[in-house]
Automatic annotation (TrEMBL):
Single Gene Ontology MF annotation: NADH dehydrogenase (ubiquinone) activity
UniProt source species: Plethodon shenandoah
Main location class: mitochondrion
Entry membrane topology: Multi-pass membrane protein
Family assignment from sequence similarity: Belongs to the complex I subunit 4 family.
Entry keyword annotation includes Glycosyltransferase: no
Enzyme superclass (EC): translocase
Protein's name in the database: NADH-ubiquinone oxidoreductase chain 4
Main function: Core subunit of the mitochondrial membrane respiratory chain NADH dehydrogenase (Complex I) which catalyzes electron transfer from NADH through the respiratory chain, using ubiquinone as an electron acceptor. Essential for the catalytic activity and assembly of complex I.
Tree of life domain: Eukaryota
Membrane-crossing segments per the record: 21-44, 93-110, 116-137, 149-169, 189-211, 223-245, 251-271, 278-297, 303-323, 344-362, 382-406
Length: 449
């Protein structure tokens, strides 16, 4: 564990001591090395929690999410190079430092076995994310988005803190391992308090209003980390907390219904979106609805499906945000009507769009399909009526994904886009780094399950 935590912390002095011409090269290489080292976490033996020290441990749920977090840092650095090339050098250093600090807090959140340490790390992720959105966002609307993001998350987290203090008072410990073996808590209000923070972070439909705003206004790395890791932090917390309240299954019915309803609603919202980033953001809410429903019914099959879908969705939505940003850098617009027919000028980029849209639709044999099928099977066993909503959700997902592809790639090329810059090797490398792990996971899905 420390073999990735300490090198990640040591990147911060390296960023501030690097000469200007080598900054991006050094940080990319260092973060890639850390990401490669983190792949060893996927080989943890089943059903055990590998304790690193008294407060930190890894198991089958946290290790894939931890690897995803580490894998994302070099990709965010690659994606942000063009966006920041006109910024003063010290602002470039500050930006990469924020991403590195965010990675340190996320590593601590995913590996902590003490709930109060998890809470502190969970809250600390707010600060660098907020700075990235409000300082490096494109539009003036970013301050509004930052306020939404901060207040939604803080309002949800306060009940969690109070609930954790009550739990500590009754059990004298907040260690996850101890909580699993101690007498189970049946207090319904404590259950609700613990749940709220994670449902807002996921986000559950109804508490999702901060997400499209934050995604649309954030710079590319902000959108990537939000979609790929910060939403998964909510799912991870949900899985961890639900184990402590096994008797409260009937209480979760309204939340399951809300999550399933959210799949339909957000898919319908996606179909009539004009803004490309907003469409991808709403599709995240739709996918996370499945994860919320799967986590709340708490069967081994559904939890496996939830972890697989979280990882694969993290990779795919992050790649889609990269593509949306590449379009934005060339056309200076996120409106889909103004960026039509790009296949004619940059055909290689259209290939990436097609591949990633097929992954987003959960076409076989993608890991997305494996996760969604496991969740749908578990939901169907729990209640046969859910097949109507999940089936409709799948059809609508295919509809808005194809709509997004056709709108941006096909059609008549507008006059103002006749001469746009070709694609760079850096961009192909970045998209390959998103897609390669997904293709490899198809060969060996048991790394996640």
């Amino acid at each position: 564990m420390l073999k990735i935590l300490i090198p990640t912390m040591m990147m911060i002095p390296m960023i501030w001591l690097s000469p200007p011409q080598w900054l991006w090269f050094y940080t990319t290489i260092s973060s890639l090395t850390i990401a490669s080292t983190s792949l060893t976490f996927l080989l943890i033996p089943l059903e055990t929690m590998m304790m690193i020290n008294k407060y930190m441990g890894l198991d089958q749920i946290s290790s894939p999410l931890l690897t995803l977090t580490c894998w994302l840092l070099p990709m965010m650095i690659l994606a942000s190079q063009h966006h920041l090339k006109n910024n003063p050098f010290n602002r470039q250093q500050a930006y990469i430092s924020m991403l590195t600090i965010l990675q340190v807090t996320l590593i601590m959140a995913f590996s902590s076995t003490e709930l109060i340490l998890f809470y502190i790390a969970f809250e600390t992720t707010l600060i660098p994310t907020l700075i990235i959105i409000t300082r490096w966002g494109n539009q003036t609307e970013r301050l509004n988005a930052g306020t939404y993001f901060l207040f939604y998350t803080l309002a949800g987290s306060l009940p969690l803190l109070i609930a954790l203090l009550f739990l500590y008072n009754s059990a004298n410990s907040l260690s996850i391992n101890f909580m699993y073996t101690s007498p189970q808590t049946t207090n319904k209000i404590l259950w609700l308090g613990c749940l709220t923070a994670f449902l807002i972070k996921m986000p559950l439909y109804g508490t999702h209003l901060w997400l499209p705003k934050a995604h649309v206004e954030a710079p590319v790395a902000g959108s990537m980390i939000l979609a790929a890791v910060l939403l998964k932090l909510g799912g991870y917390g949900l899985i961890r907390i639900m184990f402590m309240f096994p008797s409260s299954t009937e209480l979760s019915y309204p939340f399951i219904i809300m999550a399933l309803w959210g799949i339909l609603m957000t898919s319908l919202i996606c179909i009539r979106q004009t803004d490309l980033k907003s469409l991808i953001a709403y599709s995240s809410v739709s996918h996370m609805g499945l994860v919320v429903a799967a986590t709340l019914i708490q069967t081994p099959w559904s939890l496996t499906g939830a972890v697989i879908l979280m990882i694969s969705h993290g990779m795919v939505s992050s790649a889609l945000f990269c593509l949306a940003n590449m379009n934005y850098e060339r056309t200076h617009s996120r409106t889909m009507l103004l960026t039509r027919g790009l296949q004619a000028t940059i055909p290689l980029m259209a290939t990436w769009w097609l591949l990633l849209n097929l992954f987003n639709m959960a076409l076989p044999p993608t890991p997305n399909l494996l996760g969604e099928l496991m969740i749908m099977t578990a939901l169907f066993n729990w209640s046969p009526w859910t097949i109507i909503i999940t089936g409709l959700g799948t059809i609508l997902t295919a509809t808005y994904t194809l709509h997004m592809f056709l709108m941006t790639q096909q059609g008549q090329l507008p006059k103002h886009l006749k001469c746009i810059s070709p694609t760079f090797t850096r961009e192909h490398c970045l998209l390959m780094m998103h897609l390669l792990p997904m293709i490899l996971l198809m060969m060996k899905p048991e790394l996640l399950s």
